[in-house]
Specification:
hydrolase; Jelly Rolls; Immunoglobulin-like; 4 domains; 18 helices; 6hp_glycosidase-like_sf; Ig-like_fold; alpha-L-rhamnosidase activity; Bac_rhamnosid_C; 744 residues; single chain; alpha+beta; 7-stranded antiparallel sheet; Glycosyltransferase
Length: 744
């Protein structure tokens, strides 16, 4: 057939191209047979948010765990993770070639994206290692490898939780005003644990007088503040040879004594202050010459957000959030600036708020380990240790602390102090038992505290309310508050025993918990009044006994109404510490509106009062008149930082490691609100708006997480989830955006 010259040319071209294609394919196969790597087809987004030992930025951090844990965030587009491959290498170059010469996990069929323990060759102190990870998504398609991250190994220490680094912020004044007599008044906007940096150029040797403090009075720093509100005057020598000075703040005798947490030598003496004054400055001082050098733990402010239709609630949230960040300066949770000593109850409240505000867990872990060797004297404080362990387990899924301290933690439950009906009394604590708790002093004794401060007669202070913060609580050997917390400890220990596969212990603690619950509801519940009394042998009922029973789910259905009404009748008859359990009780009882009323109150006993009197961190007490030696920088006063996400929005981990979240909003009279809550799997984002009679929720769930949204049991409500009609009760949400409409 005559195809013509053009067609013949085209066929020759196709023949040549076919030859080149076959040659390329053959070469490709030969190289593959010789072990040359063939690029894998990549379909999905890479993992994000890589951490080692839950530390996000390992620059300047030394890892002390010889088998550190790795975590990452699964992208929403993956829906869930079916498998992962983790590579650890001795150099970034090896890792760029996908070679894990230190550890190559291979493809591991596992949905876990956190707490993945290292299983490679032994890591060497002083060495830096590099790692990356990829995942297989819900459809079993591979992602790209993540970016490369590094970590450095430190010397082996007694503990197992690596310390995160501190962060230094350079804060400029919001106002600097020149006054008469060569003086300046400076406001940094917020108090911080800080020192002052001054740039000052002088032509002769001279001395500046510098004052720093937390409180103003009549427009100047209060030089005689009450209690532990901070103030200091420092004489600062200056000379022509220098132009930058760090204020030599004098250490405080009380917060640097034995037992106080010492700061590293590399950090100057810090004091909480917002205001500064400089006198006798013969040369001009400008705003850029003054810096507040503020120290705090590693912090990402973008990890959490909250706003609502209530401006007071927003202000309360802001002061509480800032307080939690600002008080992390010591590397472990401390009581504030007066003593700088870790206390178990303070630390638990601090931990709940820290976890609710930032994806940061190392500080809590180190504080937990600290308490195992450095206990404090209040009975209830010992019972807070298991609560800290459990919160860490729920938020991270990590069992390392439980495995290490399980046997010692048994003593912290105080179960050894029980009598035949299971109830405990601190009076039964012997010197031998105190030693088991970790007390070194043979004279140490437990003492029930209930709340703090105690009554006026016990303190010598002139208090605004003679009963102190205890609502007239009557102490007896069998104390209701103590036994409610003890019951919760038994529940936790039963769960931990299950984690560690100790069936005999599971049975022991479950059986004992049932016995204690029965005894509390018979021995300590007054049927006639429908409330819990303060203890065996008294008919007095306080807010504390009833809010603790409700907070720890001890109240039977038949008594919830009477106990709930009694709790509401007492108002805020507890301290800022007690407010944690009061709000827990109210949300457990479905009293979200009353809880909102308390958080937005403008009375003296309110969070707003702390703002009104001029503090930028939460106080140790509602006001100085309720505890005259209070400080203005106490994290246990920041309860709304955790109760807004955990109670108001009802966002909590249902299972360890946040594989499943529960969301049970109790928003009360709010007409709109939005929140961002950090989790180890990524951020949960939620919005609410009331549109006429329809409540609209938009909930965004991160990848590798499921969520259960509780819409309640209003039988008249019409419920739509992503355009589909749903029944009452629990809605199951998937990663990504979920829109819920509830119409009455």
């Amino acid at each position: 057939m005559n195809l013509g010259p053009e067609m013949e040319c085209y066929l020759k071209f196709l023949t040549v191209m076919k030859f080149y294609f076959l040659s390329f394919a053959f070469t490709f196969l030969i190289l593959g047979c010789k072990g040359k790597k063939v690029p894998e087809i990549v379909y999905g987004e890479e993992p994000l948010g890589l951490t080692v030992e839950y530390i996000r930025d390992t620059n300047g951090v030394m890892i002390i765990d010889v088998n550190p844990e790795f975590s990452w965030i699964v992208p929403q587009s993956a829906i869930s993770q079916k498998a992962y491959q983790l590579l650890v290498a001795s150099s970034a170059g090896q890792l760029r070639n996908d070679i894990g010469d230190v550890w190559d996990s291979g493809k591991v069929s596992d949905k876990r994206s956190s707490s993945i323990e290292y299983q490679g060759t032994p890591l060497i102190a002083g060495q830096t290692y590099y790692w990356k990870v990829k995942i297989w998504d819900a459809t079993d398609m591979s992602s790209a490898f993540s970016g490369i991250r590094s970590f450095s190994m430190g010397k082996l220490e007694k503990g197992i939780i690596s310390a995160n680094r501190l962060q230094l912020d350079h804060i400029r004044p919001i106002t600097l005003k020149a006054a008469d007599n060569n003086s300046y008044h400076i406001d940094f906007g917020k108090a911080a644990f800080a020192t002052l940096q001054i740039k000052y150029r002088t032509k002769k040797k001279d001395t500046l007088v510098v004052r720093i403090g937390e409180q103003l009075t009549n427009g100047v720093i209060n030089r005689e503040p009450q209690g532990t509100i901070r103030y200091q005057e420092v004489r600062l020598p200056v000379n022509p040879e220098e132009n930058t000075y760090i204020l030599p703040i004098r250490p405080d005798k009380r917060n640097t004594k034995v037992g106080a947490i010492a700061l590293p030598d590399s950090i100057p003496v810090l004091m909480p202050f917002r205001y500064a004054e400089i006198e006798y400055a013969e040369e001009p001082i400008l705003e850029n010459d003054i810096v507040q050098l503020a120290y705090h733990g590693y912090w990402d402010a973008n990890e959490s957000r909250f706003q609502s239709s209530d401006t007071i609630l927003d202000q309360v949230w802001d002061i509480c959030k800032y307080t939690i960040m600002a008080t992390t300066f010591a590397g472990v949770y401390v009581d504030g600036d007066r003593e700088r000593i870790p206390y178990e109850a303070d630390a638990y409240l601090n931990q709940l708020s820290h976890y609710s505000l930032d994806n940061e867990y190392a500080m809590a872990g180190r504080t937990i380990a600290y308490f195992m060797e450095h206990p404090t004297w209040p009975t209830e404080w010992q019972l807070h240790v298991a609560l800290m362990f459990h919160a860490d387990y729920m938020y991270t899924g990590n069992t390392e602390l439980i495995e290490r301290y399980y046997e010692d933690l048994k003593h912290k439950t105080l179960a050894e102090l029980r009598r035949a009906d299971g109830l405990i009394s601190s009076n039964n604590a012997s010197p031998e038992f105190m030693k088991k708790l970790g007390f070194k002093d043979p004279k140490a004794k437990l003492k029930d505290i209930v709340d703090w401060p105690p009554a006026q007669k016990d303190t010598g202070w002139k208090l605004a309310t003679p009963e102190g913060e205890r609502d007239g609580f009557v102490f007896t050997p069998i104390n209701t508050v103590v036994n409610c917390m003890y019951y919760r400890n038994l529940e936790i220990m039963a769960e931990f025993a299950g984690v560690l596969d100790k069936p005999d212990d599971v049975k022991f603690y479950n059986d004992l918990a049932k016995k204690v619950k029965t005894s509390i509801n018979t021995v300590l519940f007054d049927e006639a009044q429908g409330v819990y009394t303060d203890g065996e042998g008294t008919s007095h009922a306080s807010l504390h006994s009833n809010m603790m029973a409700m907070a720890f789910h001890l109240v039977p259905e038949t008594a919830k109404k009477s106990v709930g009404e009694f709790i509401k009748s007492r108002g805020m008859a507890c301290s800022v510490y007690g407010a944690q359990y009061l709000l827990e009780a109210l949300y457990n009882a479905g009293e979200g509106q009353y809880a909102l009323d308390l958080m937005t109150s403008t009375a003296n006993r309110s969070w707003y009062n702390m703002i009104r009197i001029g503090s930028t961190m939460t106080l140790e007490a509602w006001d100085m008149k309720y505890k005259p030696n209070s400080d203005w920088n106490h994290a246990w006063g920041a309860v709304p930082a955790n109760m807004v996400p955990r109670g108001l929005w009802g966002i909590n981990p249902k299972v360890p490691g946040y594989d499943i979240a529960t969301i049970k909003p109790q928003l009360g009279s709010l007409t709109e609100t939005s929140i961002v809550v950090p989790t180890i799997k990524g951020q949960i984002k939620a919005d609410f708006v009331l549109q006429d009679s329809t409540r609209k929720y938009t909930i965004e769930i991160p990848g590798n997480m499921k969520a259960e949204f509780d819409v309640g049991t209003n039988t008249k409500a019409k419920i739509m989830l992503n355009g589909n009609k749903m029944d009452q009760g629990i809605l199951h949400l998937k990663p990504g955006k979920n829109t819920i409409l509830v119409s009455n």
